[in-house]
Design brief:
single chain; mainly beta
Amino acid sequence: QVQLVESGGGLVQAGGSLRLSCVASESIRRINVMGWYRQAPGKQRELVAVILSGGRINYGDSVKGRFTTSRDDAKNTIYLQMNSLRPEDTAVYYCNAFTQGRLSWGQGTQVTVSS
């Protein structure tokens, strides 16, 4: 099962930016789907962005136009660039990967946006 480690979270003021990273333990060229989800206290985990096989990217409605995800195959890493952050973006952000019929999750990284 692929291991995933997120980093880059922290405290930022509203309107600011953060970039999250997710490093995989194996080549991401072999991973079918990778994505970002988030979970705020008392809420369900929701989709932030997903990179599908073939390179198509889908974003959750609440982050469209503000967040961008990308990948660096040489570093086995995907990124989430978050701009124009809002207090409602406060959550634990998780990276996941679906490959060989298995879904793996990272441990998450906290993002807190102050007003």
